[in-house]
Amino acid sequence: MSIYEILERYWSYSHFRPLQEDVIKHVLAGHDALALMPTGGGKSLCFQVPAMAKKGICIVVTPLIALMKDQVENLKARNIKAVSIFAGMTKREIDIALDNCVYGDIKFLYLSPERLMNDLVKERIRYMPVNLFAIDEAHCISQWGYDFRPPYLHLSELRDLHPKVPFLALTATATPKVVDDIQNKLKFRATTEQRVFVKSFVRENLAYMAFEEVNKTARLVKIIKKTGGSGVVYVRNRRETQELTRFLLFEGITADFYHAGLSTLERSKKQDAWKKNQTQVIVATNAFGMGIDKPDVRFVVHVDIPDTLEAYYQEAGRAGRDAKRAYAVLLYNEEDKVRLKKNFELSFPTVKEITQIYYHLGNYFQLAYGAGQYLCFDFDIAAFCNRYQLEALKTISALKFLERDEWLTVTENVYIPSRLRFEVDARDLYSFQVAHANLDAFIKAILRAYGAAFDYYVTFRESDLARKAGLSLAETLHHLKQLEQYQIISYLPQTDKPQIQFLQPRSDSQHLHIDKKHIDERKQIGEEQLNAVLRYLKADACRSQQLLAYFGEKSHERCGICDYCLRKQKKSKEEEIEDRLVTEIANILANGPLSLDELVDGLQTGEEDDRVACIRSLVDAGKIKFNRDKYYL
Questions:
Q1: CB contact set of 206 (below 8 Å; sequence gap of 6+)
Q2: Are residues 180 and 42 in the same domain?
Q3: 21 lies in a domain?
Q4: Which residues of 487-518 are buried (b: 16+ CB within 10 A; e: fewer)?
Q5: CA 577 to CA 570: how far, in whole Å?
Q6: Distance (Å, rounded) from C-alpha 119 to C-alpha 115?
Q7: What tens digit of pLDDT does each residue of 481-527 get?
Q8: Could you tell me the pTM of the whole model?
Q9: For residue 131, which phi and psi values (nearest 5 degrees)?
Q10: Residue 492: which region, alpha, beta or left (left: phi > 0; alpha: psi -120 to 50)?
């Protein structure tokens, strides 16, 4: 099929969005490419369509597990075979998934970048019929980017496995320095062809606003009520999401809160209610919004200053995807600036502090020195910080530097459903059933519902299995654990907690290498990003032009709709009115003195307040005089 037939058949679209077709044809010709497309621009089709047009499998690398799972489910819903491998899966699960990619007809393999550090995974990829490597969130490979992920540095090793397979890097935000860095780090092949495809960062319908405000909650209510429609309010922490939601509900605004600490079911319900406009406003941390394409968002308000302009542009860009007027408003005060600078300092712990946090981790998970390599644990960072009296932000930053030096990896919390698989063949299972009659009916219920469990891990819900087996949930769980103890099945209960994996055996402090030079470099980069945010807050240029310039895009015209442009227009209009009033006043008084009422009524320009203000200004300047009750030149 042609790329147009694929688009029509699997996605029901009659034409491509701007830039998509150019990128697709470029990689189909075997060239490396970097596509910069703002949030909601349709990046996924840029690799999904060419992968479908060629024989073989597309390997997609992304750090966002929740988004990875969504895309896999969406592809399956379109009858396209896709699998994903991420932290939290067992070695056996991974082994089966990789086998299916080597010997089966899987079209897409989604991987977290951490998985590519595993020699087993890399060796199996060598035997896959790969047609394209797609690197999503490609800015993560650059230390100049706002979300640097060390495992991305290993992605160029994929070239050693399949030298002729093109790379397609994709990101929504990247400065010119990051654009160059992505190409260098991924070792883009030399070519005379265009390698970078950029969709303009201009959002003509999106009005950027930034206001210094003491009473931010009152201003927020005015914005919501005046703008109307659906919106998102971003805050810095989980506590703020709940407090602000209560305030908005008290003001008669239908609102709900969202953060990463909620269960998967709760988050899904809140998200769906907002998408269906049953909830007008969602108050959230930055955990909300990735992968959500709601077109009719009329406003996105930041009640706290974002850490970087990249993050701000991406979050603000969730407004107005239907091309109608929308507003991105940033509310701040002097206290916020102080907090932002303090958080910046906390983001760069000393080597000694990082070493201490690593030591606490080993004790927390009861790992012996020299043990723990590749072990994966559920990780509640709040509980960990509470136990050892640690500062949360400093701890998170320390974990990132430990990731950079490949001691461990931490993933965001994501819902992983329960899975099971038979660890014996059908003949041995039958023998077991004969010997254990009390479990026979239960095993038959599993076989009827999940017969494929002989071949691979199947996902299931314990409550569904209980209903099918005619048992209580407690009895079902007991039987599952029994079968696992007998080594008949491998049973993995559901989880929605973040995962931490130790990539190396636990080290003592003398052998724990932490790259101080890298920390110093990151601090310098972070300082530049912080200063860029603080410059943006100053009202001395068009907001849109400031953002465009930051991303290396030149714009010769002001947007005309941001707060700076509106103030300029208002001032210009006021100056124009004043100039016309001065001329009118001079012409009228040339015919003789008039009273204030006569003079005001005789003017045609402006409102009464404008006319009186202009007259007083001329009197103060000595340009017209006042004699008893008359004004004259």
A1: 316, 317, 319, 320, 326, 327, 328, 544
A2: yes
A3: yes
A4: ebbbbbeebbbbbbbbbbebbeeeebebeeee
A5: 10
A6: 9
A7: 999 999 999 898 877 677 888 989 999 988 999 999 989 988 999 99
A8: 0.73
A9: -110, -15
A10: beta
Judge whether 44 and 67 are in contact, CB under 8 Å: no
Q: Kindly state whether residues 396 and 464 are assigned to the same domain.
A: no
Would you state the structure tokens that stand for residue 356, as one six-digit string?
Answer: 């201490």
Q: Facing residues of 130 across strands?
A: 57
Which residues form the domain of 473? 418-492
In 365-436, which residue ranges form alpha helices assigned H by DSSP? 381-388, 392-404, 426-435
Whether 521 maps to a domain, the answer reads no
CA dihedral 335, 339, 340, 342 (to 10 degrees): 140
pLDDT band per the 50, 70, 90 thresholds, residue 9 = very high
Neighbour order of strands in the sheet with 167-171 = 82-85, 108-111, 57-61, 130-135, 167-171, 33-36, 196-198
Residues 381 and 461 in one domain: no
167: DSSP letter: E
Rounded Cα distance between 301 and 122, Å, is 43
Same domain, 422 and 395: no
Q: Verify that 480 and 407 share a domain, yes or no.
A: no
Residues ≥6 apart with Cβ < 8 Å to 247: 217
| Domain presence at residue 149 | yes
User: 419: which strand partners?
Assistant: 459, 492
Q: For position 338, what pLDDT does the model report?
A: 93
Q: Would you call 609 exposed, middle or buried from its count of C-beta atoms within 10 A (0-12, 13-18, 19+)?
A: exposed
End-to-end CA distance of the chain: give it in Å, rounded. 84
Q: Are strands 418-422 and 458-460 parallel, antiparallel or unpaired?
A: antiparallel
Q: Which residues contact 215 (CB under 8 A, 6 or more apart)?
A: none
Tokens found for residue 480: 């599952």
The whole-angstrom separation of Cα 100 and Cα 93 is 11
- The DSSP output letter for 511 is G
CB 111 within 8 A of CB 121: yes
For residue 332, which of 498, 209, 180 has the smallest C-alpha distance?
209
Q: CA distances (Å), 70 to each of 73, 293, 383, 567, in order?
A: 5, 12, 29, 43
- The predicted-structure confidence for 307-354, as pLDDT tens digits, reads as follows 999 989 989 989 998 889 999 999 999 999 999 999 999 999 999 999
Distance, CA of 48 to CA of 298 (rounded, Å): 30
Q: Which residue, among 207, 487, 211, 530, has the nearest Cα to 344 in the 3D structure?
A: 530
Q: What is the DSSP letter of 630?
A: E
Domain membership of residue 556 (yes or no) is: no
Task: Go through 219-228 and write b for each residue having 16 or more CB atoms within 10 A of its CB, e for each that does not.
Answer: bbbebbeebe
Cα–Cα distance, 293 to 41 (Å, whole number): 10
Place of tokens 């935000």: 173
- The last residue of a domain, from among 133, 163, 198: 198
